[in-house]
Amino acid sequence: MCLAIPGRVAEVFEQHGMRMAKVQFGGITREACLEYVPETQVGQYVLVHVGFAISTVDEEEAQRTYALLAQMDQLAELDAPMVDDAGPPGEKS
Amino acid sequence: MSQSATEKSKQPDASSQDQASSVPSPLFGSCPLPIFEHKQIVLGHGSGGKLTADLIDKIFLPAFSNPVLDRLDDQAVVQVNGARLAFTTDSFVVTPIFFPGGDIGRLAINGTVNDLAMSGARPLYLAAAFILEEGLLSEELQRVVASMRDAAQRAGVQLVTGDTKVVNRGKGDKVFITTTGVGVIDRPIEISASRARIGDKIIVSGYVGDHGIAIMSQRENLEFEGAIESDCAALNSLVNAMLEVSDIHGECPVHAMRDPTRGGVATTLNEIAGRSGVGMLLSEESIPVRETVLGACELLGLDPLYVANEGKLVAVVAADAADAVWQRMRRHPLGAESSIIGEVVKEHPGMVRMKTAVGGTRILDVMFGEQLPRIC
Amino acid sequence: MKYLDEYRDGRVAAKIVEEIRKAQTKPWVIMEVCGGQTHSIVKHGIDELLPQGIELVHGPGCPVCVTPLEMIDKAHAIARRPDVIFCSFGDMLRVPGSDGDLFTIKSQGSDVRIVYSPLDCAKIARANPDKQVVFFAIGFETTAPANAMLAHTAKRQGLNNVSVLVSHVLVPPAIAAILSSPDNRVQAFLGPGHVCAVMGYGEYEPLSQQFHVPIVITGFEPLDLLQGILMAVRQLESGRAEVENQYSRVLNRDGNRSAQALVFSVFEVGDRNWRGIGTIPGSGYRLRPEYAAYDAERLFNVTQIATRESEICISGEILKGNKKPHDCPAFGKQCDPQHPLGATMVSAEGACAAYYAYGRHLERAANDTKLTRIASAGAA
């Protein structure tokens, strides 16, 4: 019900009469059915659940949400004391 | 065998296995063999987590128990006429027999060499028994054998004896290989899962999850494309490099070492924490995982910390020498991505906790059965 | 990974927590509906980050754990048939019925296969024309478009050896049931982001108004959850009760119209029994009459099997958010993933299973001296 992750549409094709895509998720590629997001173009991001794209990721909205979060970051710096962010032991990957 | 024994005498409140086994059953005291509730063996019994531990505890250990076996290390260290020998056995049933980055033969050689190397032994001789399924293509067998020859050469070991059986079509999955290995410990070292000490640092030798995901990528209905290869490799030369470092007392700083195969890094660290009666605290951000492996795990709902590795080790190392060991590892081709991922702590003995990237903490328990792809 | 990693940034998380702390003046009880959200909260340790007065309770958003026992027993009976290839999502493999689970059935020789996508069943059916391919179609509304597509494709392509065993459940009736319960403690909801990506969130507005509860449609990453909680707290503090959309990068009020169209051409709404809760009217999907030929329940005519639920299990209370896994005396003892007693432990998504997987039973064990005494007595 919940496990849906965003991936980038790399290629669009037809199979058994259905619109399909090769979608990239962090370097791996898997097929997904695009029947529910028919206007999707190569390069767009879709949310994939059990092999189906159920929605496209609105890049502008994503920017807006993220900017809001980042802004919180900046505003908070002005008045709240800094949270301790001593890094983890050892090497970052 | 590499499962944690129910170390009841060490930490009574550590693992849930102890909880379950300490609630007295109605037959307590009346039967020498503990009750094994499963009427049949299921696949989960082979996945290296709790079900496997259960099988070992309730069926194998009671029948064969002795001081060496009861330690349940990946290898048995025995004394014979003054020499310390390391002795191990393993079997390989992987499907498909050829997968990105390796094959069952290469896995068999490297897996056995690694079991020996994890005790600090110099691997010397291997034996291999083959169970072949009627109908297996000779050409496939030749490929497997050539691969074993190459792996043995690279690891510096010799295959000195073997056996072959053939079973009827349908009674075996193309090839099963069982190996036995022997090596010698010729350094004054004591490396064992029970020797981790508070303050020690925990090091992983590189990217985790490659092997299990490479296999998963070939599984029916779960296939995906992407350059994920098994990390299958012999670790003895990496271990040699690590053992050249001394701690401030001039002793070997490596206290415990294991290759996180079935059950992944999380299960292996739990085994060490349990056997040593110590806690562990990891940092999620410092655990190296390839982007491709992360992608596959996100997609299938798997956790890379529970995915099998075949060319990695985790080492628990004295704090004062940890940096030196880590540097030495990074200079070795098989340890180039080594990372210090946490430390051994006094708190929560027997339990492994992890500080998450987002700032919370999470407990890493032993894996239960097979990790299955999920939709939720 | 894009659109995932950014939402796991620890520094930003800390800042959002700070904002929650500033906004909060009273204790509040917030329920996250979806099992995936519960999973994410426990996995990232998000509930530990929150200020003291914010209590997160876990909702019934786990379609696997609320699948009724009779349905599981029917699935098992069908899977045992020699002419059947039984296909299922991985989640259902270890859910015990009255006699074993799909794993044991597989070990006894039946053809049980894990699929990632329902469309894989069409492939299997084409490759095995002499077998009956049955797909266990569970899930919330998120999975309905995928499951519907299998039935639709089978009908369109005349794949007569495919059928679906449907056990879909719907979120809004479950929320209504929780809010209507006299013991309800939930004051605000984090709505199910992926369900709403399909269905939109129009259905949640009457609920929000009728019961005067804020409902914030929320995503699944740590920053999504924290932002959702912040939005809920701000509403609660100001006495507002509206539906807000935190997950705007993925959904809008209408949801996915073409998905909805296909879902309603294949399924219709019906009553559904929820394990641990009971029958909730209008809370599930069943196949429309036009798809009767693809309905495994009809095709295989599985007679009712006597089912037996545990008496100790309090999963009903947990699914409604009235109790936590810790509150159950059996948690981590008689009841664990190896021997689940009820709904919330049977799948990796249930609150008890999620807590168990992330070690919460060990935490309790470490703090519980009574347990320690029992353990050392047993060790002697």
Summarize the structure.
Chain A is of the alpha+beta class and 93 residues long. In chain A, 23% of the residues lie in helices and 39% in strands. In chain B, a hairpin with a 2-residue loop joins strand 3 and strand 4 (102-103).
What does this molecule look like?
The complex is a heterotrimer of chains A (93), B (376) and C (380). Chain A has a domain at 4-67: SH3 type barrels. Chain A has one helix and five strands. Chain A has one helix at 59-79; strands at residues 4-15, 18-25, 28-33, 45-49, 52-56. In chain A, strands 3-2-1-4-5 form a five-stranded antiparallel β-sheet, with no helix packed on it. Chain A is elongated, with a radius of gyration of 19 Å. Mean pLDDT of chain A is 79; it is low at 79-93. Chain B folds into two domains: 73-186, 60s Ribosomal Protein L30, Chain: A (2-Layer Sandwich), CATH 3.30.1330.10; 201-364, Alpha-Beta Complex (Phosphoribosyl-aminoimidazole Synthetase, Chain A, domain 2), CATH 3.90.650.10. Chain B contains ten helices and 14 strands. In chain B, the strands form three sheets. Chain B has a seven-stranded mixed β-sheet with strand order 9-11-8-12-10-13-14. Chain B is globular and about 55 Å long. In chain C, 43% of the residues lie in helices and 18% in strands. Chain C is built from 19 helices and eleven strands. Chain C has a six-stranded mixed β-sheet with strand order 4-3-5-6-11-10, sandwiched between helices. In chain C, α1 (10-23) runs parallel beside α12 and α8 (144-157) crosses α13. The termini of chain C are far apart. At the B-C interface, α1, α2, α9 and β14 of B face α1, α2, α3, α6 and α18 of C.
